[in-house]
Amino acid sequence: MDYNKFFGDALDKLHNERRYRVFADLERIAGRFPHAVWHSPKGERNVAIWCSNDYLGMGQHPKVVGAMVETATRVGTGAGGTRNIAGTNHSLIKLEEELADLHGKEAALVFTSGYVSNQTGIATIAKLIPNCLILSDALNHNSMIEGIRQSGIPYTIFRHNDVAHLEELLIANAGRPTLIVCESLYSMDGDVAPLAKFCDLAERYGAMTYVDEVHAVGMYGPRGGGIAERDGVMHRIDVLEGTLAKAFGCLGGYITGSSKLVDAVRSYAPGFIFTTALPPAVCAAATAAIKHLKTSTWERERHQDRAARVKAILNAAGLPVMSSDTHIVPLFVGDPERCKQACDILLEEHSIYIQPINYPTVPKGAERLRITPSPYHDDALIDDLAEALVQVWERLGLPLHAKPMAAE
Predict the structure, then answer these.
(1) Sign of the CA dihedral 278, 279, 281, 284?
(2) pLDDT above 60 for 404
(3) 94 is annotated as an active-site residue
(4) I need a surface site. Which of 36, 76, 243, 290 has the fewest CB within 10 A?
């Protein structure tokens, strides 16, 4: 039996559907972000990155790099194993204390990634609640969906950010233990959940809330606590989940909540118990990033300024910018093949790196470019991006909007 044929057939299907993913070989250079070296088939080339989730450039911040280097030099690289076997390295304890403080919760628990913290966190919490029902937003991330599936708990999907539909479902299941699961900021459309209204419903019907702040921590709120902090509802949400790999520029995921909830997840979650802990140097670097962003507002303010300028310039150029009130700048394409072609042309001819967003990340027909400015994208880079995008749009026959008339 030719087993490789099965794998080849699966790959052919992706190619035929124009969904096969190609990863660019990129080397970021500290101090030059958002510039990077692309190791192309024709040799090294300098490119500008426009789709990084290191939203604030903290992955190159001197405090963060310094903390990592100092800690690795002092205690070594690896964590030595799972926390159950090797013990908890002290840097990890300090990181969890910092995260609990960031979100105003009693405790925090760190996982190896944001994906794992959702996948194992949701599954474990739901399993520990007798007769639990999960109500999940229709656009929740794959990690949350997998956590719900792995829980084996009954679930119902409510329409995206639809308060009325969520209330209908709560009324229909009145008296049943219920876990409401949503994101605070949805990374593909850049829209924000009505967290205060969700909290109102949870309190009215006795439900529990679990909110993914992955794309918002470090980015919003006076200390970078996320949308929940910005909207004044952190104390009303039972579980706040986040990542260390985006605005904080490192690696890892976490949940925060009550001491008993966090201890229960620590004690029951296989995705935590049986996985090697984050290395001390990574924990120290993440702690340095969190501490810095708790007091420094420059990165957040500059970032919002850059995002606003990108939206204004691209809109003025007639490009189909999808509406967003956040730092996410989606550019609608609506066709998988031309979406990939646009990205290839931008990289090969304009030295601009943006990765295409295709199905299953977004529905078929909703393909787009997802642009994420940083505090370090200057006016010249923004102007170059707009000029290159217009050329690509015209070349591929993609529709442009009428350019607004200049003010008289």
Answers:
(1) positive
(2) no
(3) no
(4) 76
Question: DSSP state, 322?
Answer: P
Is residue 178 within 8 Å of 135, Cβ to Cβ? yes
**What's the pLDDT band for 406 if we cut at 50, 70, 90?**
very low
Please give the DSSP secondary-structure letter assigned to residue 41: T
- Which residue type sits at 266? R
Q: Identify which of 295, 304, 292 has the alpha carbon closest to the alpha carbon of residue 58.
A: 292
Q: Using one digit for the tens of pLDDT, what is the confidence trace for 289-348? A: 999 999 999 999 999 999 999 999 999 999 999 999 899 999 999 999 999 999 999 999
Report the chain's terminal Cα–Cα distance, integer Å.
74
Decide: 182 and 140 in contact? Cβ < 8 Å.
yes
Q: Which amino acid is at 317?
A: A
Phi, psi of 87 (to 5 degrees): 85, 170
- Catalytic entry in 5, 63, 127, 246: 246
pLDDT tops 80 at residue 350 = yes
DSSP string, 90-102: HHHHHHHHHHHHH
Cα angle for residues 60, 234, 241 (degrees, 5° grid)? 55
Higher model confidence: residue 200 or residue 405?
Answer: 200
Q: What's the mean pLDDT in 370-379?
A: 96
Number of H helices, E strands in the chain: 15, 14
Please report where in the chains the tokens 């995705």 appear, as a residue: 271
Q: Record the pTM.
A: 0.94
Residue linked to tokens 């996985």: 275
| pLDDT for residue 405 | 42
